């Protein structure tokens, strides 16, 4: 096990004078505080002592039923988990054995690598470009792994506004990804915490939805879907879910029983009470993040050198910057913090190393003034390093 590079950076950016683009934190100014207060009171009034009692491992039935209805599947194919991170950990425990080949994007979500690593996978990185996973290169990888007698076991992907890059996988690539993984017998784990936070472009079907169309049977769908209420409502309630074929859900229930018995009862009830305000809350978050992303992109163009490449996200909370090859973003970080700005160096997001000249920035929890000042400070840091 290794510490999260992001969590370690957050420790040194707690100074109130440091503008942090490091943590992927939802904006607290957008939390529906009064609605949460009313929802907590409503849950306690409606359920009484049952809201504070042990509950079923599978999750609060009304919440599971609502999630299932959105996906057009039975509630029995939905498992509530304590944050998406727990879902990743439990799925890793179920699906990964020592030496199993796990395909990941390069770069990919650091928390997934942390979750899977204790189960000792063999990571194989999939090449990516501005459109996400290169599915043609993936086909070659799948063929090579199969020919070597080490077929891939699991593919982990974030198709919407990927963490850390902010990229979105096109419909054509989504369809091909689902086809290839089905053809080669690879389980496809879709991590989708940001999918509702689209602020430009057209909504695209999930990999899970495409897999369901292809199989025609919820229990023969090889795609496993994970999502969360942390990015749309509030993160502190730690309510998320996994939807999958019944054989996977049945084992996931057993794994969760050994982990924490069940996700906190009251928290699930509060989220259920908040479901009527969810559409309006999502629109509020989308609008705010869209404006903050636009301001950050404008500031990058103004303050960073023209050699810096960056993504322009269609949604979510992150964008990705690639600096000239001779720069190392880990080495640059202390100088940036001296100028009172912080980011996450890109190296920890690569399962097999690399990414020394890259960085992840989060715009979600930054005011317009902070974005302007922080990007000016970051620009000074980068330009100073290029002049050395």
From TrEMBL:
Keywords: Aminotransferase, Pyridoxal phosphate, Transferase. It comes from Deinococcus gobiensis (strain DSM 21396 / JCM 16679 / CGMCC 1.7299 / I-0). GO terms for molecular function: pyridoxal phosphate binding; transaminase activity. CDD domains: AAT_like. It comes from the Bacteria. It holds the Pfam family Aminotran_1_2. InterPro entries: Aminotransferase_I/II_large (IPR004839), Class-I_PLP-dep_aminotransf (IPR050859), PyrdxlP-dep_Trfase (IPR015424), PyrdxlP-dep_Trfase_major (IPR015421), PyrdxlP-dep_Trfase_small (IPR015422). GO terms for biological process: alpha-amino acid metabolic process. This is Aminotransferase, class I, putative. Belongs to the class-I pyridoxal-phosphate-dependent aminotransferase family. Residues 32-377 form the Aminotransferase class I/classII large domain. Its cofactor is pyridoxal 5'-phosphate. Homodimer.
């Amino acid at each position: 096990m290794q510490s999260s590079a992001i969590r370690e950076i957050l420790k040194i950016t707690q100074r109130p004078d440091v503008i942090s683009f490091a943590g992927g934190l939802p904006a607290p100014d957008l939390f529906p505080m009064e609605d949460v207060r009313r929802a907590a009171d409503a849950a306690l009034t409606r359920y009484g002592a049952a809201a504070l009692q042990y509950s079923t491992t599978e999750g609060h039935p009304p919440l599971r039923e609502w999630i299932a209805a959105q996906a057009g599947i039975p509630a029995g194919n939905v498992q509530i988990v304590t944050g998406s991170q727990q879902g990743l950990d439990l799925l890793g425990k179920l699906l990964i054995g020592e030496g199993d080949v796990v395909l990941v994007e390069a770069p990919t979500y650091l928390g997934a690598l942390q979750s899977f690593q204790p189960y000792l996978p063999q990571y194989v990185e999939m090449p990516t470009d501005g459109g996400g996973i290169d599915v043609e290169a993936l086909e070659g990888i799948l063929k090579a792994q199969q020919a070597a007698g080490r077929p891939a076991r699991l593919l982990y992907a974030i198709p919407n506004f990927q963490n850390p890059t902010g990229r979105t996988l096109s419909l054509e690539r989504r369809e091909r990804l689902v086809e290839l993984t089905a053809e080669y017998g690879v389980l496809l784990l879709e991590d989708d915490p940001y999918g509702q936070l689209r602020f430009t472009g057209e909504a695209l079907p999930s990999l899970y939805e495409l897999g369901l169309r292809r199989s025609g049977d919820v229990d023969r769908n090889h795609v496993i879907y994970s999502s969360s209420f942390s990015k749309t409502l509030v993160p502190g309630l730690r309510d998320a879910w996994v939807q999958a074929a019944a054989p996977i859900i049945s084992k996931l229930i057993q794994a969760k029983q050994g982990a924490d018995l069940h996700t906190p009862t009251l928290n699930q009830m509060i989220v259920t009470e908040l479901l009527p305000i969810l559409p309006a809350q999502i629109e509020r978050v989308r609008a705010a993040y869209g404006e903050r992303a636009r301001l950050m992109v404008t500031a990058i163009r103004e303050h960073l050198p023209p050699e810096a490449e960056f993504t322009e996200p269609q949604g979510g909370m992150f964008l990705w910057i690639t600096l000239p090859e001779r720069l190392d973003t880990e080495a640059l970080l202390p100088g940036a913090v001296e100028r009172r700005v912080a980011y996450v160096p890109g190296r920890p997001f690569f399962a097999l190393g690399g990414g020394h000249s890259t960085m992840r920035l989060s715009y979600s929890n930054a005011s317009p003034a902070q974005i302007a000042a922080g990007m000016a400070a970051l620009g000074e840091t980068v330009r100073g390093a290029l002049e050395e």
